[in-house]
Amino acid sequence: MIAAVTFGIYDKDSSWKENGCMKKTYVIDTNVFIQAPYAVQCFDDNNLVIPLVVIEELDGLKKADGEKGANARAAVRMLENLRERGNLLDGVTLEGGGTLRIEKNFVNVELPEDLPEDKADNRILKVCRGLAASSGEEQIVLVTKDLVLRLKAQIIGIRAEDFTTEQISDDDELYTGRCEVYIPENLVKDFKKKGISVDELYISDSNGAQKKYDFTENEFVILKADQSTRKTLLGRVCHGRVVPLTYKKSKPYGVTPRNSGQYFMQEALMAGADEAPLVIIKGMAGTAKTFYSLAVGLEKVYNNPKGEYRRIIVCRPNAQFDDDIGFLSGSEQEKIAPLMRPVIDNLEQIIDSDDQIRYQDEEALSDKITEIFDRGIIQTEALNFIRGRSIARTYLIIDEAQNMTPNQVKGIITRAGRGTKIILLGDPNQIDKPFLDKRTNGLSYAAKYMKGSSYCWQITLSADECERSELAMDAVKRL
Known about the structure:
The chain is an alpha/beta fold and 479 residues long. It has 2 domains: 15-161, Rossmann fold, CATH 3.40.50; 272-478, Rossmann fold (3-Layer(aba) Sandwich), CATH 3.40.50.300. It is 33% helix and 18% strand. The protein has a 6-stranded mixed beta sheet. A 6-stranded parallel beta sheet has the order 16-15-17-18-14-19, with helices on both faces.
C-alpha cells in the first residue's frame, strides 16, 4: 500500500496573527473548487465568502465530464452539508473555527467602464470591492487560480492570491532523486559485495572539508572513490545502506542504458511492483522516459516467466482532451488515437531497433505494432476512464503527468490494486493545462509528498542525458 498524502493549511501570510490583527476574509473563485473541492478546509480560522455567481458556475459545471464535473459535484455536496447546519447567507461555522457564507449582494457596486458587468469574473470583483468598502479595517483577499483575474483585482485595488495549499516549495523542486558522494577507496570492494552504510559516505564543502550527506530513502547514488575519481559506482539508498544496482546488466527488450540516469531509470522500472509500486520520472523531452518505460513494460509482459503483469496501460492527459472526449465522434480508442501517436513512435523504435532498416517495410512494422494492441498487451485509455477503477497486476504508464492536477494524481495512485506498478512521466517545465504551473501540477505534487516513501522511487534526468539527435542536443544547449 502506498503511503498517504497529507495536506497543509493555506496560510500564505501568517504575520497578521502574530501582530494581533483581525481575521482576513477570503473570497473564493470557482476555479479553486474545480481544482480542490475540499478547499474550504484549508483556510484555518479565517472567514470565507463565496459569491453567488460561483454557485451558478458550479451548477453549470456539475454535469461536465471528467475531473471538472466530479470536483464541481463534490463542491456542491460540501455546500449542501454546510447548508444543513445553518443559513449560508448568514454564515456557517467551519471545523477550523472560521465561517463560510454566500454573498448575493453588491450587484450595484461600480467597476471601471472597461470591465463589463455581465462577466462572471467581474461579478466576483464587485463582491470584493463591496466587501472592502463595508468591512472597515478587515482585509479582503480574492483567492483565484486565474492570473488574469488576479491582475484585474490589482487594478481596482483588491489583494489577490493564488491557492497555494498544493504548491511545492523551491526546496522541493530541487530534489532530483539522485546524488553524487565520495566513498573511501578501501570500502569499494565491500560496496560491490553487499553495499555500505550511508555513514561511510561523504561530500565536500566549498573549502574541501568532508561533511555528511542527508540521504533520502530510495535515492540513487553515484559513488566516486576518493583516491581515484575515475572509479565510479552506482547504487541506491535502502534502509540506511547504499546497495549496488540489481538490474545494472539487464537489457529490457534489447535496450541498453547509455548514461547513469538511464541506469537509475532502468533500476526503478525493472523493480517489481511489490518493491517499487510507484515510480516518478522527470526530465525534458528526449531523455527516453516514455521509450524506456515501454521497453521495460514489454520485457515484463512478453519475456518474464513470472507473469508479473497482465497488461500495459498507457494514459496521456491533455489540456482540452480529457474534458471534451465525450463530444468527439468514434470509439474510445479512435478518440484517443491522436494523443497516443508519441507512444506509437516509441514502439516503432523498440520493436525494430535497427535504424538502418526500420522503415524499409512500413507495412510490416505497422502490423507488428497493431498486433500488440490487438492482443491487449498494450491498452491506451483516457484519463477520465481510470476514475473509479481498481487496477490489479497492471503496468500503468501516465505520460505527460505534469498536465495532471494534484487531485487527479491522488486518484490514480489510490487506485493501485495488488501487483500494479504506476509510472508517472513528465517535465514540470512543459505545462499545457490552464491554472497549473511547475509548482502546482500533479507530477510535482506527487514527487514532493512521496519523497522518502519506501514505496516510491523517483529520478530526474538531466539535460545532458538527452538521447535524441545532435540537433536536439545542440538546441537544448542553445535554446
